Request: fold
Amino acid sequence: MSSTPTPATRPLAGRQIHPLGLGCMGMSEFYGPSDDAESLATLQAAFDLGVRHFDTADTYGLGHNEELLGRFLRTLAPARRDEALVATKFGIVRAPGRYERRIDNSPAYVRAACDASLRRLGVERIALYYCHRRDPQVPLADVVGVLSDLVREGKVGAIGFSEIGADSLRAAHAQHPVAAVQSEYSLWERSAEAEVLPAARALGVAFVAYSPLGRAFLTDQPPAARDLAADDFRRALPRLQGEAGAANLRLQQTLAAVAGRLGQGSAAVALAWLLQRQPHVLAIPGTRRQGHLRQNLAACELVLPPPVMDELDALFHAGQVQGERYPQAGWAGIEHQPSGGRAA
Ligand SMILES: NC(=O)c1ccc[n+]([C@@H]2O[C@H](COP(=O)([O-])OP(=O)(O)OC[C@H]3O[C@@H](n4cnc5c(N)ncnc54)[C@H](OP(=O)(O)O)[C@@H]3O)[C@@H](O)[C@H]2O)c1
Reply:
């Protein structure tokens, strides 16, 4: 286990890039109210602090998130704008105000979604274009086929898959190089360690860890379901409910105690654990706030000694975390769970 500082960059889509990107989803929905001016200031602060990887999706705020990122990109001088590696996604189709979704990977849909994302982002090419969720009605080869056509046409720089299974990843990569897999991964969500993470590592495919702060649960401000805004999706998270919520909160308190012993915040420790545990993984913590952004980036300066890494591993091992990571509607199109992986 490494006890050296996190390298300044890691490979992603043909670039060497800061290991922490910025997850932009919460700037549009899912985690309570947001303020565009504050979000734009946070995007600028991230760029100024060296972050170059910005993660969005067409479904976040039903286009709002991509438009917001487009507004930010337009404030940058053209040469600086080219430094930003914007990743977006297609495939989750929702009605306004609804969490429930259907998944669409049909080639005609992918083409239309790509054109719409290009327009909203105001770019000529999407640096990294992910299939957000797999649609079992559409053969994987057809999805890779249309994505590789988009690469040939210059609309997309590199392709990726979110929440894909290891077998599908290998098949897709054999057909066209897959630049990245994006799946949930954090101290409290380790199921990717069984198959997808090792498969990505073996293939030389980057692994991008989403929700690396456990949707704020691994910070010093863990959400309690009852206190969240009515439209905050975490109200329905099984891991925040009832006995599971109480048991998980005890884990969070222990994490906070470990962080306190080190004179650090929980978020920085959770991210430092991730970056040290997985030397080929990049993470995209999400925040709307500059203060949180700075706390999160501090993880790259932090070296957790091996006994602390072991302590955290043991604290959050699979049997300890209670409850599934998604409510039922959230499982649509998720492939990567190995058998039994749904129960935490
Ligand atoms: N591929 C997929 O299916 C998928 C699914 C989910 C997310 N994602 C991507 O991954 C990104 C990150 O995941 P996420 O946003 O779901 O979860 P996350 O990064 O684990 O946590 C984000 C939450 O933590 C809070 N937070 C961040 N830093 C904090 C700090 N230092 N102290 C206290 N609270 C802090 C944020 O609130 P504030 O805004 O108030 O800081 C927000 O509520 C998303 O933005 C999105 O781009 C992808």
